[in-house]
Write a structure and sequence with these properties.
Length: 442
C-alpha cells in the first residue's frame, strides 16, 4: 500500500549515522539465474550472523478459478504441514532445534516460502534442507487437509458475519467483475469444501515450477555460498509443462455503482475505488507521492483533515494504490456512525474530486517529499525488509537500482505530474462505492 509514516528530519539524520553501509551506499544487488532456470537476487550482509531467504512463484490467488476459489491459498498454507515423509510435528521440531523460522507467503500475484536462520553451518544446513524438502516434495497429507479445510471454512463463516470482510469482498468483486482479482483470496465456503488433495497436487505441479521461481537471499554468506543455496532450493522443483494460461485484461469501470449491504453494526463501513495501476506503471511515483497527500499520510492527508479533523465524522480515513502485475485496486476506506454515512461519503467524494481536478499545493508536495524521503532509510534497516524488496524487484522485473533511485524518483515528482497522473487513473464519477450497514433513513 502506498502508505509511509511521517519521520522528522532529525530522525533522518540520526538514522543515516547508524544504519548499515548497505542502506547508506545503495543496495549492491547481485543477480543471476540458477541451472534450473530460477532467477536469483542476492545481497551480502555481514553485520549479523543471520540468513534470510525467500522463494516466490507465479502461484498467487489470481491463479484460482471461480470453481476452485481458495485453492492457491490452501496449497500455500499446506506446504509446510508435511513434506518428504516428514510430518508437520517433525518439521516444527527440526526448525525449533536450530531456531529457524519458516513460513508460507501469498498475495494476489505470488506465493512461496520465506526462511530466517542463523548463518552458522549446522543451523543453516538443517534449515535449508527442510526448506528445500518442503518446496520440492510437499505431501499434502489427507488427514491434515481435512482439518485445515474445516479451519478455513470456519474462518470464512465467521468473516461472513463481519462488516469489514463483507465489504472488502463485495468491493473486490465489483471492481474486477470476471477477472480472478475479484475472487476472495481464502475462497468461499462452498468452493473450499469441494477441494481435494489431487487439486492441491495439480496446482503445485503447475505453478511451483523452477522457471517462475524467484529466489531472494540476504545475509551472512558469500556469493559462492548463495549460489549453492539457490541451486539447492531450485534443483528439485518441477519444470513447467508449457506456459501458464494468460489472464484476462482488467476491464475499466464504465460507470459508477453503489452497493448497499445491510448489517446490524453500529458503524457503517464505506469503501470506494476502482482498478488502479500495475507495478510497472510509469505513473507510479507521481501517484505514490500524490496519494500520500490525499489519504496515505495519516494526519497529514487531505482526507483526514476533511473527514476527521474538521467534521469528526470518522476516527480514520485512508487511501492507497496496490500495484500488482495487472492494475491493482485504488481504494478509499473509512468507518462512521450509521446516521453520518451519507455525509461522510459526500465529504470524501468532494475531497477526492477537488484533488483530482486541482492537484496538490506546492506546500503539500514539499511536505510529502520531505516525509517520504526522510522515512526511506527505515525501509532498509533490517535484512528482512531488504529481502522483501529483493523479492519485489525480482518478481516484477524492476531495475536492480530501483532502491538506489527511489529517493531521486520521489524528489523529482512535480505538481503537474501528480495532477495529470491522478486525472488519468482516478475518475471519481466512475467508482464503485460499497456501504455495509448504511443509514437506514436513506
Amino acid at each position: 500500500m502506498m502508505y509511509v509514516k511521517t519521520v522528522s528530519i532529525w530522525l533522518w539524520s540520526a538514522l543515516a549515522l547508524v544504519l548499515s553501509g548497505i542502506a547508506q551506499a545503495g543496495l549492491p544487488i547481485q543477480h543471476w539465474q540458477s541451472a534450473n532456470g530460477a532467477r536469483v537476487y542476492f545481497v551480502e550482509s555481514r553485520g549479523l550472523p543471520l540468513l534470510d531467504v525467500s522463494v516466490d512463484f507465479d502461484a498467487g490467488t489470481r491463479r484460482d478459478s471461480a470453481e476452485k476459489s481458495g485453492l492457491a491459498n490452501l496449497t500455500s498454507h499446506m506446504l509446510n504441514l508435511g513434506a518428504g515423509g516428514l510430518s508437520e510435528e517433525e518439521i516444527s521440531r527440526r526448525l525449533a532445534d536450530v531456531g529457524a523460522q519458516l513460513g508460507a507467503t501469498i498475495d494476489p500475484d505470488r506465493a512461496g516460502m520465506s526462511l530466517r536462520t542463523l548463518s552458522s553451518t549446522r543451523e543453516r544446513s538443517q534449515a535449508l534442507d527442510l526448506m528445500a524438502k518442503i518446496l520440492q516434495q510437499p505431501d499434502f497429507p489427507a488427514t491434515v487437509l481435512q482439518r485445515e479445510k474445516a479451519r478455513v471454512i470456519a474462518a470464512l463463516q465467521e468473516e461472513d458475519t463481519q462488516p469489514g470482510p463483507i465489504g472488502q469482498k463485495a468491493f473486490q468483486a465489483a471492481i474486477y467483475g470476471s477477472h480472478p482479482y475479484a475472487l476472495p483470496g481464502a475462497g468461499k465456503v462452498e468452493t473450499v469444501a469441494r477441494l481435494q488433495r489431487q487439486d492441491l497436487l495439480d496446482f503445485f505441479r503447475q505453478h511451483y515450477v523452477s522457471e517462475s521461481a524467484v529466489i531472494s537471499i540476504v545475509g551472512d554468506v558469500s556469493r559462492e555460498e548463495a549460489a549453492g543455496i539457490a541451486e539447492q532450493l531450485s534443483a528439485g522443483l518441477p519444470h513447467a509443462n508449457g506456459g501458464l494460461p494468460p489472464l484476462p485484461e482488467v476491464a475499466p469501470l464504465l460507470q459508477a455503482e453503489t452497493i448497499l449491504l445491510p448489517h446490524p453494526a453500529s458503524q457503517s463501513h464505506i469503501l470506494l475505488g476502482m482498478p488502479g495501476i500495475s507495478r510497472n506503471d510509469v505513473d507510479y511515483f507521481p501517484l505514490y507521492v500524490g496519494n500520500y497527500i490525499l489519504g496515505g499520510g495519516g494526519f497529514a492527508s487531505r482526507l483526514t483533515e476533511a473527514v476527521r479533523e474538521k467534521r469528526g465524522l470518522a476516527y480514520s480515513v485512508y487511501s492507497y494504490f496496490m500495484p500488482l502485475a495487472q492494475p491493482g485496486p485504488f481504494q478509499i476506506g473509512l468507518q462512521t456512525k450509521r446516521d453520518q454515512a451519507n455525509e461522510a461519503l459526500e465529504i470524501t467524494l468532494a475531497t477526492l474530486r477537488r484533488f483530482v481536478a486541482d492537484g496538490p499545493t506546492a506546500e503539500e508536495l514539499r511536505h510529502a517529499k520531505q516525509n517520504l524521503i526522510g522515512s526511506f532509510p527505515l525501509r532498509l534497516d533490517s535484512n528482512r525488509k531488504i529481502l522483501g524488496y529483493l523479492s519485489l524487484i525480482g518478481y516484477y522485473n524492476l531495475p536492480l537500482d530501483y532502491l538506489d533511485q527511489f529517493v531521486k524518483n520521489v524528489d523529482k515528482v512535480t505538481l503537474a505530474q501528480v495532477k495529470s497522473a491522478f486525472q488519468r487513473h482516478v475518475n471519481p464519477e466512475k467508482m464503485v462505492t460499497v456501504i455495509v450497514g448504511g443509514d437506514d433513513k436513506k
